[in-house]
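Final report, Chapter 2: Outcomes

The project's central promise was a pipeline that accepts a single protein chain and returns its three-dimensional structure in a standardized token representation, suitable for archiving and comparison. That pipeline is now operational. To close this chapter, we reproduce one record exactly as it appears in the project archive, with the input sequence first and the structure output second.
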Amino acid sequence: MPQLNPAPWFFIMIITWLTFSLLIQPKLLTFTTTNPPTSKAPTTLTTSPWTWPWT
């Protein structure tokens, strides 16, 4: 069964993982902004119960 031979697939997986973690991921993380902490108090939503017509 060729799936059990890890020779070509393991090398491809390691190279892909290293490429993603060392080259692509740092470049992507510079574009994403994190949510800065705010001093606003969290708002609580007020909900009203739903009146079901069939009960």
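Archive annotation: Helices lie at 6-31.
This record, like all others produced under the grant, will remain available to the consortium after the project formally closes.
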